[in-house]
Amino acid sequence: MIQKLIAPRETFDVPCTIEIENTFESLHAHVELAGGLAMEAGDEVLVHGDPVRVPYGQKVTLHRLATVSRANWIDRLLTRVLARLELTELYEVSFSSGSKL
Q: What are the Cα distances from residue 48, in Å, to 36, 65, 67, 72, 87?
């Protein structure tokens, strides 16, 4: 609550193109915002519309409206710090066989 008063987020709507593919070669969903809008740490995108189901072997391209919520400076800083902390969790992974030497 206090964060919203100190540094509110900028929110706006923008058209987007969604490409969904469900084939043997690829299973992916990509969203491209109109105007080549670049996303930064902490930004959020909400694509509006009904859920999409793509049957196996098909590829679909849709045009929808998306709401972009730009992160404020507090959200950007918090996102970067948390990303660093989560990355260090990978350091605890062991690739040994588990047998004692």
A: 19, 6, 8, 23, 31
Q: Report the 10 Å Cβ neighbour count for 33.
A: 16
Beta strands in the chain (DSSP E): 10-22, 27-33, 44-47, 58-70
Phi, psi dihedrals of residue 85, rounded to the nearest 5°: -65, -40
Provide the CB-side half-sphere exposure for 42 (13 A, CA): 16
Q: What is the pLDDT of residues 25-83, one digit of tens each?
A: 999 999 999 988 888 888 999 999 999 999 999 999 999 999 999 998 888 888 888 88
In this structure, are residues 42 and 75 in contact, taking their beta carbons and an 8 Å threshold? yes
pTM, to two decimals: 0.69
Enumerate the domain spans of the chain.
2-92
Tally helices (H) and strands (E) across the chain. Answer: 2, 4
